[in-house]
Amino acid sequence: MVSVDSAAQTQLRKVLGTRDLIVYYVSTLVGSGILVVPGIALELAGPASLLAWLILAVAAFPIAAAFARFSAEYPSAAGTSYLIRRAFGDRLGASSGLFLLLLNLLVNPVLGLAAARYFAALMGWHGHTVILLVGFAAMSLGVVANMLGLRIASQVQLVLVFSLIAGLVAVMGVSAPAAQPELLTPFAPYGWGAVGTAILVCFFSFFGWEHVSHVADEVRDPRRSFPRAALIVAGIIGALYCTLALVIALVVPPRTDTDTTAVLAVLLRLSHGEDAARLGSALAVFLIVVNINAWVLGASRLLYAMARDGAAPRRLSVVSRRTGTPVAALWTVWVCYALDIGGMYVLGGDEHDLIPFASASTLVVYLLTFTAGMRLFTGRAMRTLCAVALVTSVAFLLGGGLPSLLAVLAFTATVGYILLRGAAAGP
């Protein structure tokens, strides 16, 4: 057991620059979302789902810019919860931090299970238990990568991120000749209201800007690096997602017998056959593993920050002298992933049901964050940027239906817990 015997053991190292942030932004945002969500959105709204992707691609710019400014002006491993605390006080800040942490620990294993489904398809494995075990192994791999140290992980991911983008472009390129323009009609077979539902589902592929803010304490020049990296990545992912969604809509027939959530596999199967589909599954596993590493990093940094600030046991803020990583927080995150997978084994069900709830819950935190930004920043440009991002987030949340209601109730319950805890502690 590691003891906290000096202040140096709870200080993170400033080792990241613009390139590193681009890597972590892309590896956070490009992963299981782009591999499973386009197929789900197409099933929900038909070709009209393309509107959802286009709307979100445009909305990504003000949202990314706002979070970049937040991280530049208020760098903290606590991320958005630190900004909310500065604007509205400790209790609401603690509530948002706890809510985000619980959401991370609940939803992150979805990434591992997505990798497991592609891997099982590649190997010809079947069975719920196999999927869960492989999914847990994938999450454990992300924890180990983070244990090795942030600098090592960043250098490895630099190669992986550019490889995954090249792989996605290659899949779209070889699938495009199989396009059938007639598949775009009827354009809105399930009505225009389905676009609102698709937006909430597609948002799962776009949230993650707040996760990169958790490494703000480790950025050498946050005022310069965050805005540059965020706007570059907003353009990259917007173009990537919209292009992939268009290719899927042009290649995949409606109501196909193929599992359209396995995006790369279905594209290659329909355009080039079963052998190509296996290659798509292998690439998908590769992409998701890259994504897992970034999300494990964000969850561990948030837990570290809460422990450092007294919202969680102080011992969880211990940082390794050798690697500079919050080892106690990483071990705790790993245990939580094990509990999540165990719960799924007992309860059964489909992890994809968590996607709309995860998107809506993230939007709830976004509303608080952008409202906090309007309160903390006095410049007209920044207040306008926050207002645009706030109105956009409200519109997305209102169109979400039941998942949005459940997300609001879950956050309210978290605030209630913090208030009751504070009342029990006394003045």
UniProtKB/TrEMBL annotation:
Gene3D superfamilies per record: Amino acid/polyamine transporter I
Cleaved signal peptide residues = none
Q: Which InterPro entries match?
A: AA/rel_permease1 (IPR002293), APC_superfamily (IPR050367)
The lineage's top-level taxon is Bacteria
Q: Where does this polypeptide localize?
A: Cell membrane
Q: Which Pfam families match?
A: AA_permease_2
Query: Which ranges does the record mark as transmembrane?
Result: 21-42, 48-71, 92-119, 125-146, 158-178, 190-209, 229-252, 279-304, 325-348, 354-374, 381-399
Taken from the UniProt entry, a GO cellular component term is: plasma membrane
Please give the name of this protein: Amino acid permease
Q: Name one GO molecular function term.
A: transmembrane transporter activity
Keywords noted in UniProt: Cell membrane, Membrane, Transmembrane, Transmembrane helix
Topology with respect to the bilayer: Multi-pass membrane protein
